[in-house]
Amino acid sequence: MLQMKTTRFNEVKNRMQTYQFLMAIPITELVTYIDDDSDEYVEDPVFMDLRKALDIDIPVTTIYERYLDVPVHSGDVLMYASRSHGDHFVVLDTYRDPVDQLDLIRIGFGCTKEKVAVVRQLVRQLYDRSDTFIHYEEGQYFLQKLIDNTAYPKTIEYYGNVFRQRLKTYPQPV
Question: Virtual CA dihedral for 153, 154, 157, 158, nearest 10 degrees?
């Protein structure tokens, strides 16, 4: 019994030490086009540095292509966890709002206090260079609702059309 209470206390204590960032940016900020005359693109270098700082693998170009291919009023929440550190994660809400003309996504990052300085610098760099300043916040606990798997499937209704958004986690739990 004492062991169970200690484990729960440590889980809560660890979550309290996790720092979180959330922003809304166009999905195009996650890729860089090689030049103006080409349709070729690669993962944005700042986003790549951010992923590497958190030790997280994300197929950015695949997410980008899928986002542009799916119809509006669809898109899931994708959560990618670090393979080496349980408190590091990236979450992307890829829901395509029918009235959104900027291709906005919400993207959140979670990290421990040891990584806050480097993650903050890279997140701010990614957000501040955007042409679209919609939303930015940092602190603790505000991503909990977005990553709570008991809240899914989430029903999103638009003019009588219903979409059931799912939370997909990677790597898949064993």
Answer: -100
Is the pLDDT score of 21 beyond 90? yes
Work out the pLDDT band at 69, boundaries 50, 70, 90. Answer: very high
Strand partners, 138: 21
pLDDT over threshold 60, residue 92:
yes
pTM to 2 decimal places: 0.86
Residue 150 pLDDT > 80, yes or no?
yes
CA-nearest of 33, 25, 27 to 131 is 25
Sign of CA dihedral 144, 117, 137, 62: negative
Residues 6+ apart with CB under 8 A from 87: 14, 15, 17, 18, 110, 111, 112
| Helix, strand or coil, per DSSP, at residue 87 | coil
- Burial of 24-39, coded b for 16+ CB within 10 Å and e otherwise, reads bbebbbbbeeeeeeee
